[in-house]
Amino acid sequence: MFRYLAVTALFSLLCLPLRAQDSGPSDAERLRALENDVRQLKQRNDELESEMREIKAKRSPFAPVVSKPEAKTKTASDSKSVVFSEATPPPVDVHPAGSEYKLTLGGYIQANFETGDVSAFEGRFGLTALKDRFRLRRARIGLTGDFKEDFDFKIEGDFEQSDAAITALRTVNVNTGATTTVTNSNRVEFSATDIFINWHHYPEANIKVGQWKAPFGLENLTPDTLIYSIERSLPTGALTPERQIGVMLWGKPLAHALPEQKDLVTYYAGIFNGNGRNFNNNDNNEFMYVGRVELLPFKGQLMGQDAQLRLGGDYLYSRDEIGTNIAPASNLRVNVDGSLTSYMLTSAATRRAYSVDAALRIGPFEFIGEYFDEQVDGRFVNGVAPIRDFDPSGGYVQASYFLIPKKLQIITKWEALDPGQVANDGIQSFTGGLNYYIHGDGIKLMANYIHTWSDFREANPLFGDDQFDEVILRLQVIF
């Protein structure tokens, strides 16, 4: 480009009419003027090439990061050199590689202070007791997006692990059936939570593929940032399947038939590997089958207040192999002193479970109740003797009321779990708490007092105290 501009300029100068030597510029002056014009053309050519590079970069999926330009020397029309720097560096542009029309980056942090008999309500006393602590309960970051082609997706990870051995590495001795579990789940590290793609072209029949919470249990499916108590109940943690990898069909069958009543019925039907999150290998050729139905039979006005009634029911069936953690979100196995720990199967087993739930909200008041029942039957596989069958069950009831609308909320909660493994192995807890919404759920302070008692410890006082007390404080920030 520069050569063409230079030749054009030279040809234009040669075509100028010749003037008398005594009245026109000298040859030396004309040469200097020509050199100045050439320099200006080269400068303009460099600027055009720079602009073209920026335009091409913006068309690529990800624009390069351009460093701040250094000061450059330019020659002005009076042939004097001046030093200048460009006013601002070009902005850094990030463009999605796909065709998303909506892309959202966000996350949340939940920080706890826990004192007293820490997590005793989860059966952590005696052999599994924990000490007072500051706890980074959750520190999650996620990316969600929608495509014009009726797909949405979510990618989320957590920089903190729970106390349960959800990332345990399990090894099984094929001769003896003995299992060895190694876990670093108490350390701060990054772990995937929700990773899925959902096709939502038909609201009556969405198709979801990836990893997320299996559709079982109301409290289990309520987002971490929206539950009213600081922690979920022990029955929810012990008797729900938590996150699994699989595929699910779900939707609102009345979305088009009765648009005004589209939320009346919602269904979920999923097939999962059944051996927990972040395990791509299935433990056998069997799968976990989970289904849920939600009903919204009433939504309107009651006693002059906005009100609604929600009902739900769930079912689960799974054939598991030795070494599977059947309570990935909490504890279920009863220790010799009545405390609980995670339940890794020591033989193959078949599980069947169901739950029912109800939630009634009238203005500032809300009542929630849920009941779970599970049957675990041992199976004889590869010469390994089956475990003894047991039938754990439990539930909770929770009431909440806004003392100051949308600002200060009081909650009470009673929960009970019967692990069903030895006599008098039940654990019950009462929770009282306050929630202060500084900026809605975006910035929230929570305080809970939890009193727990162990039926096993009461029946066997030689093992120690059967009454436990804990205080938990939480700061939640969503960004």
Question: What topology, given as strand order, has the largest sheet?
Answer: 3-4-5-8-9-10-11-12-13-16-17-18-19-20-21-22
CATH architecture of the largest domain: Beta Barrel
Number of continuous helical runs: 5
List the domain count as a whole number: 2
CA-based gyration radius: 34 Å
Mean pLDDT: 85
CATH class designation of the largest domain: Mainly Beta
What gap, in angstroms, lies between the N and C termini? 50 Å
List low-confidence stretches: 16-22, 59-85, 165-184
Summarize the helix and strand pattern as letters: HHEEEEEEEEEHHEEEEEEEEEEEEHE
**Main pleated sheet:** 16 strands, antiparallel, barrel
Indicate the proportion of strand residues.
35-45%
Structural class: mainly beta
Q: Tally the beta strands.
A: 22
CATH topology of the largest domain: Porin
The 3D shape can be described as elongated
Q: CATH superfamily of the largest domain, please?
A: Porin
Can you give keywords for this protein?
single chain, 479 residues, mainly beta, Porin, 2 domains, 16-stranded antiparallel barrel, two-stranded antiparallel sheet, 5 helices, 45% strand
Mind explaining what this structure looks like?
There is one protein chain. With 479 residues, this protein is mainly beta. It has two domains: 2-84, no CATH class; 100-478, Beta Barrel (Porin), CATH 2.40.160. The protein contains five helices and 22 strands. The protein has helices spanning 2-14, 27-59, 218-221, 234-239, 455-459; strands spanning 72-75, 81-84, 100-116, 133-147, 151-158, 169-172, 179-182, 191-199, 206-213, 243-251, 265-272, 288-302, 305-320, 333-334, 340-341, 348-362, 365-379, 393-404, 408-418, 427-439, 443-454, 467-478. Strands 3-4-5-8-9-10-11-12-13-16-17-18-19-20-21-22 form a 16-stranded antiparallel barrel. Strands 1-2 form a two-stranded antiparallel ribbon. Helix 1 (2-14) runs antiparallel to helix 2 (27-59). The longest helix is centred in the first third of the chain and has 33 residues, at 27-59. The radius of gyration is 34 Å and the shape is elongated.
